[in-house]
Each structure stands twice: as structure tokens, then as C-alpha cells.
């Protein structure tokens, strides 16, 4: 994660609004979307659904390839407000196929794609490293996300340098070590929230230094606080 999500993005769009729902998919590079006071950073593993009537702006990295998908405003979204969506392998295949179709001028995204994007949002993509030492470190973090070990600590145990371990995570998962661990911790927190545990306790149990840090990280990915997000998930199944 970068401190200023705008500084690596050199071109884009001024604030604007659509009369349709728009899903933003970044196939290559990164995008920073300004919406509702937040700057949400998108990549190939996280897209964004922007409901109709929502003002937003966008800036893109020089290498960014972004595809917008439009859906009718009367399609019912299962949440309020702009919502990040994890790009799973299945969703990526649909997005690429739909992107080719839309290049031929066939209008809005399909119903199949819409349903795939709004179904089962409650998990972030955390790619599994395939090779050592990143694989062993990743497995250990997933087993105990609250482990306070730093990348330097993990590197020492793996007999590699911290920079080598960081490069391994980046090349194996497409994510920095810090972002990968943050996503793993947030995913681990969701079942706890669903059980009704207090946010402060959940934050501690998954390794965040403070409840505020956890809430900020959660909102960066899901566009909502943990409490609002869990309530919206319960409404989906009620």
C-alpha cells in the first residue's frame, strides 16, 4: 500500500456521474478512484462497482488498461454505495470475455456477469504463492494472521534477505507482502464479525495494532466500516 494513492497516477477523469451502474476492471496497472471522500486503489485483483448516480473521479497509472462495464440502473445492487469486488479467477474469465464482446458494440454487460460480480463479496483475493520461501510464510500467516512477525523476521527464519522475500511475494502473488498480509487478516476477521464479536476484539485477534487501523484498512477495500458491511451481508441472506 502506498501512502498517497494518487501520486503514481498521472492521467484520468474529472468528477462525473452516470445514470447506470458501472463496474471498473483494471486488467493491467493500477487506478485510483475518488468517491465519497475515499481514494480506492484498484488493480487486477480488486475491481469497483459504482452505483448509478454516484459522483466519482479517476486517475490511472501510465500502464493502466481499464475496462468499464455498464449495467442498467434498475438492476438491484445488494449493498449501498461504491463497493470493491475481489476478482476471482472465475470473474476474471467472465470479465475478459465480456470485454471482448463489448468491443464489438453490444451494449451493457450481461446479466450473468452482473450476478457474478454481486454474489459472495465477503472475501478478498489472496493469491497463494507457489514457491518457497513465500509459500511457507504465506501458510504460516494464514494459520495465524495475528502473528506480529515483520517481513524481516520471516526472512530471517527463511534464510533469505527481506528484499528477496518482498520480491518473492510480489512476483508470486502480484501483491506486496504488506498488502497480502493485510488482506489475509481482513479475510480472517469476517467470520468473527459474522459471529457478532466486537470490532476491537476482532482487530486484536487478527493482528491489527488498533481497532482504528483495522477499520481504516477494512474500509479501504470494502468501502464500508466492518459493522455496516456485515449488516449488509446479513440482509443479503435474510
Describe the overall structure.
The chain contains 9 helices and 8 strands. The protein is an alpha+beta fold. Strands 1-6-3-4 form a 4-stranded antiparallel beta sheet, with no helix packed on it. Helix 4 packs across helix 5 and helix 7 packs across helix 8 (211-222). Mean pLDDT is 83; it is low at 1-6.
Number of helices: 9
- Looking at how many chains there are and whether they match, the oligomeric state comes to single chain
Beta fraction: 15-25%
What's the pLDDT, averaged over the residues? 83
Radius of gyration: 18 Å
Low-confidence stretches: 1-6
Overall outline: globular
Helix-strand makeup class: alpha+beta
Q: Taking strands numbered 1, 2, ... along the chain, how are they ordered across the largest sheet? A: 1-6-3-4
Helical residue percent band: 40-55%
The number of strands is 8
Order of helices and strands: EEEEEEEEHHHHHHHHH
CA-CA gap between termini: 35 Å
Largest sheet: 4 strands, antiparallel
Pick out its properties.
single chain; 238 residues; four-stranded antiparallel sheet; globular; disordered N terminus
Short summary:
With 238 residues, this protein is of the alpha+beta class. The chain is 43% helix and 19% strand. The strands form 2 sheets. The chain has a 4-stranded antiparallel sheet, with no helix packed on it. It has a 4-stranded antiparallel sheet with strand order 7-2-5-8, covered by helices on one side.
Amino acid at each position: 500500500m502506498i501512502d498517497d494513492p494518487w501520486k503514481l497516477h498521472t492521467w484520468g477523469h474529472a468528477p462525473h456521474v452516470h445514470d447506470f451502474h458501472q463496474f471498473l476492471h483494471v486488467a493491467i496497472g493500477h487506478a485510483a478512484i475518488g468517491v465519497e471522500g475515499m481514494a480506492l486503489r484498484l488493480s487486477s485483483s480488486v475491481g469497483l462497482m459504482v452505483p448509478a448516480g454516484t459522483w466519482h473521479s479517476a486517475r490511472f497509472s501510465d500502464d493502466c488498461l481499464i475496462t468499464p462495464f455498464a449495467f442498467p440502473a434498475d438492476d438491484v445492487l445488494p449493498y449501498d454505495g461504491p463497493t470493491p469486488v475481489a476478482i476471482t479467477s472465475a470473474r476474471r474469465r467472465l470479465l475478459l470475455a465480456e470485454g471482448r464482446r463489448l468491443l464489438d458494440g453490444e451494449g451493457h454487460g450481461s446479466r450473468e456477469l452482473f450476478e457474478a460480480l454481486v454474489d459472495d463479496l465477503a472475501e478478498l483475493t489472496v493469491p497463494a504463492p507457489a514457491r518457497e520461501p513465500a509459500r511457507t510464510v504465506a501458510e504460516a500467516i494464514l494459520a495465524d494472521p495475528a502473528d506480529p512477525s515483520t517481513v524481516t523476521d520471516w526472512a530471517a527464519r527463511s534464510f533469505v534477505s527481506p528484499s528477496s522475500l518482498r520480491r518473492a511475494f510480489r512476483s508470486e502473488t502480484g501483491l506486496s507482502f504488506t498488502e497480502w498480509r493485510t488482506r489475509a487478516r481482513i479475510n480472517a476477521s469476517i467470520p468473527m464479525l459474522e459471529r457478532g464479536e466486537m470490532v476491537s476484539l476482532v482487530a486484536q485477534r487478527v493482528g491489527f495494532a488498533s481497532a482504528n487501523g483495522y477499520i481504516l484498512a477494512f474500509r479501504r477495500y470494502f468501502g464500508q466500516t466492518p459493522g455496516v458491511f456485515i449488516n449488509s451481508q446479513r440482509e443479503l441472506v435474510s
